[in-house]
Amino acid sequence: MVVEGAGGALVPINETEDMIDLAKALDLPMLVVASTTLGTLHHTLATVQSIRARGVDVAGVLLNGPAHGENARQIRDRGQVRILGRVPELYPVDTVSVQELVAQWRNSPFVDPCTEETPRSLAPRQGLRERDAQCIWHPYTQHQTSPEPLEIQAAHGAILRTSDQTEIVDAVSSWWVCNHGHTHPKIAQAIARQAKELEQVIFAGCTHEPGVQLAQRLLPLLPGQMTKLFYSDNGSTAIEVAIKACVQMARRRGVQQPRVAALEDAYHGDTFGAMAVGARSVFSAPFDPLLFEVDRLPTPAGAWAPNCAEALEGSRIALAALDAWLTEHHKDAACLVVEPLIQGSGGMRMYPRVYLEGLDQLCTKFGVHWIADEVFTGFGRTGGSFACRPVAGRPDLNPAAVCLSKGLTGGFLPLGATAFREEIFRDFLSDDRKETLFHGHSFTGNPLGCAAALAALDLLQDPATTSRLADIESWQRRFLGDLSNRHPVTGARVLGTLAAFELPAAPGGYLASRGQRIARFCRDQGVLVRPLGDTMYVVPPFSMREHQLERVYDTLSDAIEEL
Ligand SMILES: Cc1ncc(COP(=O)(O)O)c(C=O)c1O
């Protein structure tokens, strides 16, 4: 008997012959080993037919995989072939598993695979909202007053599909993370491939190919001269790592109380350190007494187009204040953290590159590290690779560290990374273990996240993406221009693929209810937006089509008219 399992019945064994020829030459029947899962009917029946067509007997089919009575019966009846048994998936695949299986077979009666159960397709998610209400605490949600959550069953490109098959345009890239669109097959495949090889391993004392490859590919693309990548698992932790490294260095220099500076209206995340560098607001209020003190510098950003005269003047004023702070505190300063070009959660407030150039120059002059928080702006969001990318004819920017997350994995998996300049890494080299950067997370360098990030990087570097970014920017300008002509909105502004504006006569901050009512209206019309108070913005996945973006703006226009 020849066991067909060495790649398939038609697999060549030399220049002219295949496995069937081998069976024929030996005058033996063939045993077909077949999977029980999707696609098996075609493959198995075609194999059985080709063996028989060449005059070789088929001894039977041995199934491999999870129970699937229906597939087993179909193979038996359509192929008129005996089903000899089923070998379940072994885990782990080793001799112990095989011994356990054999022992099980010896001790229990034979089970005909044709009589086994057929897995049923996923049951409709009945009562999901009710079950959610019983057991889930959602982020940034006041459960007493919030509308029920949307039941999202699937997503593709820029579209979310609810369990009642309503299509919703995702105009916020699901919290600004799904840059390349939902369920992009290239990223999904990369994760699936990696999951079969290595899903996770402790990253202290171990390394792996996707982690190293990602660092090798990413570092040269980053602004400044980044040479080392420290992995974590989200944007806030990427910030924590950068701040902790700078603070530890300052302490080593002998600074008793290192000073950390950040801009007004900043947002850098929700963990305590990231919250501390963020602006004090209603969100931080409960924790304010526990947040470490941060020197708050005037922001150059506003609800204006990033290169308008007001923005340039704002930058000049903010740079003068920075100069004064550095003059006074450079000796005690650990670092200065900034969101380059746009303060996202602070209200999509923009500022020109000249501020970053001035900041870079001043920090270099005073020897103070600045940290570029590219968590939101990175990976194409501001029109090019990164907000701090080099610009022809302009001075380069040289942050000490760059923080990344969100679009890093194309929004598929949580991953954070903090890139450092070589001299920072070197500062920690010592024979004294106390000088280690004592930071790490269970999922540091998760291989699945790294594999997703590599696939997302391929997509980012695909020339098709470059032209898509340009298309989205031009559509944003056109649709926002039209909207501004129709309604008395203010501060209409576009930066790369993102656009924002202020609702007419908007009072209050983030909690202003007008934005929330507009979000609800849009949601009922099949568009997902998430205003920041009365600041409206559109942050589309790069896969968004022109008609989908037009629908977003038409819906926003209807909402403004209605409310
Ligand atoms: C600029 C910036 N930094 C950091 C963060 C925090 O990222 P995460 O929510 O992944 O912790 C955010 C989140 O919106 C952000 O916009």
Largest sheet: 7 strands, mixed
Percent of sequence in beta strands:
15-25%
Q: What is the topology, as strand order, of the major beta sheet? A: 8-16-15-14-11-9-10
C-alpha end-to-end distance: 77 Å
Mean of all residue-level pLDDT scores? 95
Annotation field: number of helices? 17
Q: Which architecture of the largest domain would the CATH scheme give at its second level?
A: 3-Layer(aba) Sandwich
The CATH class of the largest domain is identified as Alpha Beta
Can you tag this structure with a few keywords?
3 domains, Rossmann fold, Aspartate Aminotransferase, domain 2, 17 helices, alpha/beta, globular, four-stranded parallel beta sheet, Aspartate Aminotransferase, domain 1, 563 residues, binds pyridoxal-5'-phosphate
Tell me what the structure shows.
The structure is a single chain. The chain has 563 residues and is an alpha/beta fold. It has 17 helices and 20 strands. The chain has three domains: 114 residues, Rossmann fold (3-Layer(aba) Sandwich), CATH 3.40.50.300; 132 residues, Aspartate Aminotransferase, domain 1, CATH 3.90.1150.10; 226 residues, Type I PLP-dependent aspartate aminotransferase-like (Major domain) (Aspartate Aminotransferase, domain 2). Helix 7 packs antiparallel against helix 14. The protein starts with a strand and ends with a helix. The site of pyridoxal-5'-phosphate has 15 residues, from helix 9.
Task: Describe how the helices and strands are arranged.
Blueprint: E1 2-4, H1 19-26, E2 30-35, H2 40-53, E3 58-64, H3 69-79, E4 83-87, H4 95-107, H5 128-135, E5 152-156, E6 159-162, E7 167-170, H6 173-176, H7 185-197, H8 209-218, E8 226-232, H9 235-252, E9 259-263, H10 272-277, E10 295-297, H11 309-329, E11 333-338, E12 342-343, E13 349-350, H12 353-366, E14 370-373, E15 401-404, E16 416-421, H13 422-427, H14 447-461, H15 463-486, E17 490-495, E18 498-502, H16 513-524, E19 527-528, E20 535-538, H17 546-562
Parallel strand pairs: 1-2, 2-3, 3-4, 7-19, 9-10, 9-11, 11-14, 14-15
Antiparallel strand pairs: 5-6, 6-7, 8-16, 12-13, 15-16, 17-18, 18-20
Helix pairs in contact: 2-3, 7-14, 8-14, 11-12, 15-17, 16-17
This protein binds pyridoxal-5'-phosphate.
